[in-house]
Amino acid sequence: MSSLAAARADNFRYPPDFDPKKHGTLNKYNGQHALRDRARKIHEGILIIRFEVPFNIWCGKCGEHIAKGVRFNAEKKAVGAYHSTKIWSFSMRHHCGCVIRIETDPKNAEYVVKDGARRKEESYDPADAGLPQLPDEAERAALASDPLASLERSTAHAREAAGGRAALAALAAEREEKRDGYSLNKRLRAALRASKQEDARLDTRRKELGLADSITLLPESEADAREASLALFAADDRPKFDAAWAGKRRRIMGESIMPTPGGSGGGSSRGGGGGGSSGSGAVGGSSRGGGGGSGSGSRAVAGSSRGGGSGSRAVGASGGGKGAPKLSAAAQAFAARLLRKPGTQLKGL
């Protein structure tokens, strides 16, 4: 290397006294192994690896459950061979101090717990999981000695393969369908176009309602319409509400809108002998007249008196008087504002 910066680029620096013929590699020059601390027991045939527990086990010392897939720092070494396949042993230490040893079993294609733990027995049918089922030793011996059994097994495999052809064809068709980028893009753009049109329609409706831009309208639904119709009054209470509203309006139409200077309206005037006739709806109490005259003067409209003296005038009085006049336009407008129904015609009091 020409410079320290160039050495840092690939993390290799050859010192001045390094001789390739003498040292061979930088690891030998530094007295290190390529795997560093993982190979500290390499002279004993032991390599430090990360080992995942292949199945659920219980610790033999503390009894704690160790789930499948939990990782440990394990010492890996060869302890034997099955024909030409090595048998590997993995030794690991639990946090309680218990040493757990698991070995491979090439004959049965699985792992075996040797020391320090107990395996959780979980049995299942490989055929239900869709996994190939390996024959055991007895079945292999029977197949080797019985040609008919071997033929039956081959026939069963052929039936299984025929049953899986339909699933394979469906998978192949789905793959070809997903390969067609034009059709996928066409369907996607159509869906996006419809979504944009719906968003534009909702935005136009929001502007018609005068809502703020921060409010987003959602698509209408039958449930929303039904809940909105029942928001103020239930369906059973609607007729009662309409009847009460109509009765209130009738009472308002029958009341007087004129002020009462002398007290509450509804007084009467009585006359005796040749006295004045009674007036309905008199303003300002009652007056009595005897003989040919009337009592104290009470103001009234369109009333009559048959006695002498000052006549008694009553609003809308019966007994020889004329009918009550119509209200003026200003009075009708005032009454309409009270009733909140423009255009209402009042017939008078």
From TrEMBL:
Residues 252-327 are annotated as: Disordered. GO terms for cellular component: post-mRNA release spliceosomal complex; U2-type spliceosomal complex. Residues 262-296, 305-323 have a biased composition (Gly residues). Signal peptide: none annotated. One of its GO terms (biological process) is mRNA splicing, via spliceosome. Belongs to the CWC16 family. This is Coiled-coil domain-containing protein. It comes from Raphidocelis subcapitata. The lineage of its organism: Eukaryota, Viridiplantae, Chlorophyta, core chlorophytes, Chlorophyceae.
